Sequence to fold (995 residues):
Amino acid sequence: MSRKRTMIIGTAALAGTAVLSLSLSSCGKADMTKQASPFAAAKGSKSVTLSVQTWVGAQSNVAVAKYLLENKMGYHVDTVQVDEIPAWDALSQGRVDAILEDWGHPEQEQRYVKDKKTITAGGGNGVTGHIGWYVPKYWADKHPEVTNWKNLNKFAKQLRTSESGNKGQLMDGSPSYVTNDKALVKNLKLDYEVVFAGSEAAQITQIQQFAKQKKPFLTYWYEPQWLFNQVPMVEVKLPKYTDACAEKGTKDPTSIDCAYPTTPLQKYFNTEFAKKGGSAAAFLKNFKWTKDDQNEVSESIASGGLSADEAAKRWVEKHPDVWKKWLTKK
Amino acid sequence: MSFFSTPPIATRPLSDAKRPGPLRAVRQFPALSKLLLLVLATAVLVPLLATKYGAAWPSSLTVDVSGPLGKTSDWIIDNRDSHWLFVYFLGHLSNAVVISVRAVYMLLLALGWTGVTAGVTLIAWRVAGLRIAAISLISFLVSGLLGMWVPTMQTLALMVVAVVFSVVVGALLGLAGGLSERLFRILRPVLDTMQVLPAFAYLLPVVLVFGIGVPAALLATVIYAAPPMARLTALGLRGADPGVLEAVSSLGATGRQRLLTARLPLARKELLLGVNQSIMMALGMVVIASMIGAAGLGDRVYQALASVDVGAALAAAIPIVLLAIVMDRTTAAAGERLGAGTSAPGPAWLRGWQAWTGIAVVTAGLALVGRLSGSLVWPGAWAVDLARPVNDFKEWMVDHLYSGVPVIGGTADWAEHFTNWVLNPLRDGLTALPWYGTLLIVAALAWLIGTWRTALTAVLAMAAIGVLGVWKPSMNTLSQVLAALVVTLVLGFGVGILAAGSKRLEAILRPVLDVMQTMPQFVYLIPVVALFAVGRAPAAAAAVVYALPAVIRITTQGLRQVDPGAMESARSLGATRWQILRQVQLPLARPALLLAVNQGVVLVLAVVIIGGLVGGGALGYDVVTGLATGDLGLGLVAGVAIVCLGLMLDRVTQPTERRTTGKGV
Fold:
């Protein structure tokens, strides 16, 4: 009997806790857009939550910022992995304090920065990004004409895979990345099928496999990216990017028929954090480095086998001249 | 008339029947009459439909729901911080979740690694015995050694809160269903269905309302994990021995007394089984919910998968598996003891409240020791780096097994052949099949195996997919499910038959199957990416591995339970072992085999969908895209299509008699 009673008591106690926590919270309004993660600031110290995106460049930004905030400024840093667009939502709600690398989302910028003012632009992070189509250098050396989109159809046969059927394969990565490839293939009348690898990791694995066997491939890729150091790739020239074409594209994304722009990558902060975040907010506003710096960290994470923390530590020890500037207040 | 129907049909071949008139045959074989009716329907409907609509799903029959869904999503984002529904209701709900999880997490952190390990080990010892206590101790130490202490505690905190919520919600629903006949009739099909749906499908609706984060993740988990508790509670209450109830009420007990003193105690075994099931489902879901912002171990796996870091993914996956084993074994053992009616063995001081006080004191003491020695979190210096050797091993495997192995070919070659020779033709075939043809096949299968009701549900579910305009990706997903299912069944039946014939093999297999069955679906994605690269083949491979244990187990049990008398008499008639298997065992085990198919298909679907993360494409990919790009219209439509596909597959393979438990238990 005592067994059962303890069980009942235990269940009752647990249920009581649940009810209690419900009633604790239910006096008056509860703004669910202003709830932090239950795991935040677990050590009771000053804390910052950063959003990490899936690609390694973004991880490098966060790793270095995290290392400096924790080791030089006494903060506790939580990182949350969220995809790009949900990250804007999380940033607006205050579940995340900062995004350190954004590749341009005009629609979200309009909604959150200009209309709702829950997000504040934080300036560039010093790196310029470029998206494009790439082929491996070993293949381009043999067939130089492949680097122009007009000749791509001639090579479609060589790029067939089991996933693309009787068309050539244009490999895309994560569904969340900025891409117009489906529209481009259609509008440029290319004999290609866009095959999504599902994640950047999957795409990188596939590229490395192809490179090992020296097979030709055509892939959506972007700069800065550490993989270029392992697998040299050459960009395929697409029709020139113009403002007119971009304007057409914002009206109807399916009508785009020109290359991707070159984007200075941007930082964004939760407005409240930007105002009241103290030295952490000031530090993140000052955070600005170069493509080479970022690549150095990225490569030691992605192919050097270091953890993000170790990679950041190594970079921090080597380049005090760069980050010392971020610490000085405004 | 009685003269004709004396011999039982099953024992004699059709030709023996003495001049069966066509009508008789129809009456004797209900399947035949069903088929005849369907053929008739086909003959009438197909030409009509073909001339009117053509083979592809007609665009006039689709409804575009992305517009309204997009508007809903926009409205929610714009009003989340002002509308009363959010501020006064959902806000509090989400607040309560955050506060509870935080409270548990803080408690776990305050206990420190010494306290938590000691507490869990002692509870396991008290509830389930020495062996399981040892497993718990080792599991927690290993989690610490792998450097995963903090994420393990986060997952544990989420789990505790999610399980409490699910058990409370499930028990309340089950109580209602157990006491009211009408509610039971409404609840049962809903709960049955909820249990066969892939976890993935539950993610999007909660994200739509709560946004990314712990509250959404936790609520999705509760929605997923509460149904088994509700089902088993209701079943347990209804299954109470009427004699006992009669006796209790004749003693003058009121309704409430009867419930508390007779019905609930009688149902305790089902109740504990329900808790066990809820825990297992919650653990699986908490891991998948990392896609919508549940932190902890799942998030580590997800992050590692995103950078193909198999080693790091494994380091996070091992604690998940260990946590699953500890929780499963502890609750299962507690349930068995309760069911057997014996209390924990051991001297008297071990029983009753003294033991619990002892556990509390020892835990507090060890927590204090840990605190004094200065490390609440697992000491970093004790961590073992597992990732690097695993990644080296994976590299080696990729270099040596991946491609160009003489004679058998590499794993990548297999994957390519599988894609080219099985998946592609199947997908193209299914896509090319006229839609009314697919509907008719579905109807025929469901009706033959079940009732007209199941057939109707299956057909309506299929039609809903077409109406939503996702016929093509659904056929793609279906082709993957079917291909993986065939492989699973061939392997599963084969191994199951072998295991049923050999006690030794079964003894070797059992622990392996146990571990495989307790692992969350997510974990299976890691090794297959390393072996089969990216695409539909690895998704199918993961699905096969995930569904295999349940199929093997059900097959073995089914064959074992065949009446030994029947086998003995066959043997005495001089039948060979092969003949016995084919003509006695397999036919007699038919219900079990059907059940295995049903379980297999449900489990395969769940993983094929997650395969969207490793290039599986189709519906799973659409859900991932919907989540990743905030395009909830796309994601929700795909989610609904998955639900319909799951419903259809379940109904088509569902024997008239249903299983009573969920995931392969």
